[in-house]
Each structure stands twice: as C-alpha cells, then as structure tokens.
Amino acid sequence: MTAPLIGSAEAALFVGDAVTAPSMHNAQPWRFVLRRATGTIELYGDPRRAMHRADPDHRALHLGCAAALFNLRVSAAHHGRPAVVRLLPNASDPWLLAEAAFTGPAGDDEDLAALYPALRRRRTSRFPFDDEPVPDALVDGLRAAALLEGCRLDVPDPWHVDTLLGLVRDAEQREEIEPGARAETAAWTYDTAEPATAGAGTGTGTRRGAAGGRPRRDGIPAAAFGPRSTGGTATVRDFGRARPVAGRGRAAFEERPQLVLLSTPGDAPADWLRAGQALERVLLQATADGLATSMTSQPLEWPELRWPARNPVAPTGHVQMVVRLGYGPQGPGTPRRAVAEVLHVL
What we know:
The protein has helices spanning 8-18, 59-78, 110-113, 136-148, 158-176, 179-187, 269-288, 303-306, 339-342; strands at 30-35, 40-45, 84-87, 96-101, 152-154, 189-190, 220-221, 228-229, 250-251, 258-264, 292-296, 318-326, 343-345. By secondary structure, the protein is α/β, with parallel strands linked by helices. The strands form 4 sheets. Strands 3-4-2-1-13 form a 5-stranded mixed sheet. The chain has a 4-stranded antiparallel sheet with strand order 5-10-12-11. Strands 6-7 form a two-stranded parallel ribbon. A hairpin with an 8-residue loop joins strand 3 and strand 4. Helix 1 crosses helix 2, helix 2 (59-78) crosses helix 7 (269-288) and helix 4 (136-148) runs antiparallel to helix 7.
C-alpha cells in the first residue's frame, strides 16, 4: 500500500525538529522546500549564511545542513514516516544538497526513532567537563553510530591529543592576527544587552543584537560563550575573544580533554554530507548516553593545519570534525529561526 503524500503540517513538524541541529557559529545555513505534488522535501544550502573566510569551500556549511537532514530523518522515523534520502540529486544545482521522500514502510528506522528524545536535549557545551573517563562501551557505541553513516570515529592517542591542542592554539593565534576572521566571528556573536541593529539575516557582517527590535534567532549569544579558560588553551572556541562581555567568569577546563575524530575516506561534497549526518548521529547518541559534547573546528578552518589533525596511525582519511566528550553541564541552548522562515511550500 502506497503511503499518502506528506502535507505542509507534517513538513513543518519534521523541519521544526531538523533545525535543532548544530551549525558553524549557529548560522543555520539551510533552507527546506516542500514539493506538494510529489510529497518530497528538498534541502538547500543558503550561501547568504556562509562563512566566506573560515569556510570558503562551504565544507562546514554542508556539515551543518547534513546534521539538519539527519534530524529530519529522526523526526520522520519517530512519526512513522521514514525518509528515503538522495544526496546531491541535481548536478546542475550545487546548492540542492538532498531530497527526502517519505515512502518507506512504517516501522522502518526504529534505531533512528530511538534518538528522537535527544533532539532537543542536545547542546554544545562550552563549559568544563569532569575528569571522569567516558567508558569504552559508550565510545564503541559512538564508533558504531558513525559507521552507520559511512564515517569513521577515532580516539587519538595522548600524544595526538597534545598535537590537537597545539593546533587549536595555532588556529587561535592565526585568527587573532587575521582581521577578516575576527570580523566574521564577531558578526555571528552578540551580547543580548546590545542595542538592536538592522541587517541581521544578510550575512554581511552587520549582525549585531537584533534587527528591527526583534530578538536574534541565530548566532551565538553571550550566555552560550561559557567561561574563559584559566589554564591555557581549551578545546572550545572562545567567542569572547571577538566579543568581550563584562562579568564573564573564568574556570579551569580539563587538562587532557577526551577527544574523538570524525573522518571520511574522501573530501568531496558527498563526503561532507555523510559526515554531517554521522556527526549528528554521534552527538545524539552521546546525548542519549548522558554525555556532554562540544565541537572543535578551528584547526580544520586552516588548510595547513587540517592535515596534521588526522590520526596518523589510522587509515588515511580527512578529518571533518573534532568532538569533545565528557560529563558536565549541557550548556544553554542557542536560538533557532522559525520554521516559517526556513520552510517554503511549492
């Protein structure tokens, strides 16, 4: 029996869950289109929300959009409408990243549906974690989650963790002396006490406070910066460097953070889309397991630093994200754009 086509109400439900995904600087660089005639949802990247200095090839944009795609799959499975996804369905339109049809039999993808409670609990935590080690059994489960999406998750040796921390320091120093990089980060961070400024939503570097008196629904608010590190480099990006906030506290982060590397065999747009889905699957599974997480992309934004970030004792691959795991505060949520702003019905 053929499943009925989804309508705008179901599409809004799925997209409302999809947009809880993480993205670089919380830019939310996605756009969804429901084609009523076919009952399919198309996912587009939004170049207006790209990081042209830190992400010139749009790799991170693909990761964020793919994380949203994975959330859409989770939502659809939870509501009994499993999605059948095609990546890059139209070679002539590079911004059309994926197409999802909802023709699968009800009951498929039960493993995806099981992740649904973690969708809105997942946070990026820029706070210190405890020293308690993550059990091997949980790490093995995260490895399996990445493999299900065609990616690899490696645990770096202690000496390689030191290398990664050095790469983070190097990336921070490079950003400090690169005006374009500093301006881009500042454009996507804000103190909620700042006066409203028109221009939010343009991606032009004028993104301060709110637009037209409305609260911002993207970017990183100061409440989510977390404390400054008192003991050298932390693996979380210090957004307070670009936007100092009065009264921001300090704290000691883990001396040796528990890191994992998400890698792909290739480094083309299709690989990035698989990696973004794997990343979100890992993050949701970690959340379901009671772990706190954050992501470290600074070294991956500089081509000369990205290659040394790979695990040299593992099969050669391309690192797509460094993920920090542990036990600690989940951190506050960051705002999301309204479904009506990102979903278009045709």
